[in-house]
Amino acid sequence: MRIFLQVQNARPPGVIEGKDVKLIIATIKPFKLEEVREALTNAGVRGMMVTEIKGFGSQSGHTEIYRGAEYAVNFVPKIKLEIVVPATMADQIIETITTTAKTGKIGDGKIFVLDVEQALRVRTGETNEEAL
Fold it and tell me: At what positions is O-UMP-tyrosine found (predicted)?
């Protein structure tokens, strides 16, 4: 006996066809922030959130010498960017961040892309792409 299931690709409530929005979360080196911000502005990004963070990945921290004593620095300073863009712009924005933030050395960062179920501008009540 065979059973076939048909799965529908239904959108969550509040998401309008053709109005897909993406959240791009990028971690970059702190000294690259201004260069990345300028490149994103030129690429059409109208806003972003920036947070100073600490973390580690492959780099696993490093050691520093301060007043003759060696200290282990387990968490490395990074900058986290959160950018919400229309899905049609996501690939361009990812490419812009990648090329601008890249130094070719360990610790250049990571980029994550998530679907945004709904966006809302508090002041006007605009939703999704219009809210950006």
Answer: 71
